[in-house]
Design brief:
By secondary structure, the protein is α/β, with parallel strands linked by helices. The chain is built from 17 helices and 14 strands. The strands form 4 sheets. Strands 5, 6, 7, 8, 9, 10 and 14 form a 7-stranded parallel beta sheet that branches. A 3-stranded parallel beta sheet has the order 11-12-13, covered by helices on one side. Strands 1-2 form a two-stranded antiparallel ribbon. Strand 11, helix 10 and strand 12 form a beta-alpha-beta unit. It starts with a helix and ends with a helix.
Length: 463
């Protein structure tokens, strides 16, 4: 389904038809330097490019942690935990492969901090009763990485409340900050599913406890998740909500700020408190964050810059920046070559929006370390574009999302060979997302990891 809101604001699509990995695509990921440079010039996106990717190999230090390089595995949920929220066999397999792959950061996937906050019955859920299972997987990540690479990554746990996307029993049980007509249209969610201020107080307590548990489990840091329209993120645009969590900027950012402050008080000095933060939603005011009040969906980073400065003043020193909503306007946060609808812009335009947005945020608070997003569509050009940004000081780390399903050792190839293998890259075909959207689906790469995930995909399609 095409979202008409965006069609009137973005340029007419410019299609590049091709077949990649056996899949017909209107937009092809880049398989060569020449392909990228040619289209970058034709679209006038002016993304920087360097042949020398040495900037990605540079270490980075923060709070007594040494990040061995500037490459990050983003939080990609596998929906493959146990019913009690522990990592299961596919979960362990995924992180063992990522650990061996050489990235300097592993941003561990969305992990619920309340039972009702789970996005599916197999989402990970950290609690005092299963803490040992998280200790074991973190130990395995560190040991595998040391054995394979001679260094261990910095590992963050993403603490989440799924909000409107909560499905702890396999069917929607939304918990929302407010009804949004862009999503609900003429069928608003029942008012008893709009969370009270008292409930949000409990969410903050749960996020703080989640941070403390993450530290006990051996993670190096925690992400108080505030992106992609999950509960914390939805509050950023709660302009019309009453009470202490709505209306003013101070109120709309309260859950994030107080959870971060509380987490810092609950953990040791060397434990890193961070957030994966939406800087732009792509929805018009009063339903979107990072947009002007004129009803357009242009990017306005005034409030995101203010929020990042507030977090810096609370001693946050690293943030993971993203945009959009993967359920509603995925072309904004993960530009794709093939998906459920025809995007209203060329994917390269979406990539530039994210990377340039992160660069603007970095310029506003230069001492805040920032991780970029949305680079999988760049294909083999991804390390060269992100290295150019990092070399210029525009941001600090290159974050790879869907790529890690397809190409878990992408970092090693970049660091040892100076680039990525065109026969191993993610082709942005969205099949991992298709699996995630189906009941019981455990997403992975159908193309590059087909021995495991093609049978899962085929079975779900038949059902």
């Amino acid at each position: 389904m095409t979202n008409r809101i965006f069609i009137t604001h973005f340029q007419k699509p410019c299609y590049n038809k091709s077949r990649v990995g056996g899949i017909y695509m209107k937009h092809s990921v880049y398989l060569s330097k020449e392909d990228f440079l040619s289209q970058n010039d034709a679209l006038q996106t002016a993304l920087p490019y360097t042949d020398d990717v040495k900037a990605l190999a540079q270490p980075f230090s923060l709070q007594n942690h040494r990040f061995p390089n500037r490459l990050a595995c983003q939080a990609m949920e596998g929906c493959d935990g146990t019913a009690s929220g522990e990592p299961d066999e596919l979960t362990k397999r995924r992180y063992k492969r990522l650990a061996a792959g050489g990235a300097g950061i592993i941003w561990f996937e969305a992990t619920a901090v309340m039972e009702e906050a789970r996005a599916n019955p197999r989402q990970l859920y950290i609690n005092p009763n299963n803490l040992d299972s998280f200790k074991r997987i973190v130990e395995d990540i560190k040991e595998t990485a040391m054995r394979q690479n001679g260094y261990a990554p910095v590992v963050f746990m993403q603490a989440t409340h799924s909000g409107r996307y909560s499905k702890p029993h396999g069917f929607p049980e939304p918990l929302i900050a407010y009804n949004n007509p862009i999503f609900e249209k003429d069928a608003p969610i029942s008012s008893d599913r709009i969370v009270s201020d008292e409930y949000l107080d409990r969410v903050s307590e749960a996020l703080i406890q989640g941070a403390a548990l993450a530290e006990k489990a051996g993670f190096d840091g925690v992400d108080i998740k505030c992106c992609h329209r999950y509960l914390n993120c939805e509050l950023l645009s709660a302009y019309e909500r009453k009470g202490k969590y709505g209306g003013s900027f101070e109120n709309r950012t309260r859950l994030l700020r107080e959870s971060v402050k509380g987490a810092m008080a609950a953990v040791g000095h060397d434990f890193i408190v961070s957030s994966r933060l939406n800087a732009y939603d792509g929805f018009p005011y009063p339903y979107g964050f990072g947009v002007p009040t004129d009803g357009s969906i242009n990017v306005d980073l005034t409030e995101p810059k203010k929020l990042i400065r507030n977090l810096y003043d609370e001693d946050v020193r690293i943030l993971n920046i993203t945009m959009g909503n993967p359920y509603f306007n995925p072309h904004v946060n993960r530009p794709f070559s093939h998906g459920a609808y025809e995007p209203p812009e060329h994917p390269l335009v979406g990539v530039k929006r994210v990377l340039e947005g992160v660069a603007q945020l970095k310029k506003a608070t230069p001492d805040m370390a920032l991780i970029s997003s949305a680079v999988s569509f760049l294909g083999v050009a991804a390390p060269h574009v992100t290295a150019a940004y990092i070399e210029s000081g525009a941001f600090d780390f290159a974050g790879f999302g869907r790529t890690i399903f397809a190409y878990p050792d992408f970092a090693r190839d970049i660091l040892e060979k100076g680039g990525m293998d065109k026969d191993k890259i993610c082709i942005c075909c969205s099949k991992c997302t298709e699996i995630m959207r189906k009941p019981g689906g455990t997403p992975g790469c159908v193309i590059r990891d087909k021995e495991v995930y093609l049978p899962i995909y085929n079975k779900l399609c038949k059902e």
